[in-house]
Amino acid sequence: MNLFVGNLNPETTAASLRKLFSEFGEIVSSKVIIDNATGMSRGFGFVEMADKFHSYDAIDNLDAIFFEGSVISVKEAKGNAVKGGGSKGGGFKKPFKPRFPRSDDRPPRNDDRAPRSDAPPRRDDFNSFKY
Hints:
Blueprint: E1 2-6, H1 14-21, E2 27-34, E3 41-49, H2 52-62, E4 66-67, E5 70-71, E6 73-76
Antiparallel strand pairs: 1-3, 1-6, 2-3, 4-5
């Protein structure tokens, strides 16, 4: 099971995360996410544990503890937002698709259209209205 570990100290390493979580079971992998632009830690990482029950035990015991100078947050990881590598976040957004596709026979919309013949005449002069 993959765990998200947030609010990490910038000095925290993958090895120190592995050591912390190994108390609760077998660790498959541990990773601290590094900002490509600065080379610094982004303040979060992931720990993958072999057994989900050991993972839940780690969440219960490590969430909101003081670790290497920061109170860390440990949660079950939801999805894989880091895999895309983009700086726009998420990674799970659906591409834009209009609800109703525009048919090719419709003219483009613009403000210079001629008024409809069945529409009442437009009144731009407010003085012509009777109150």
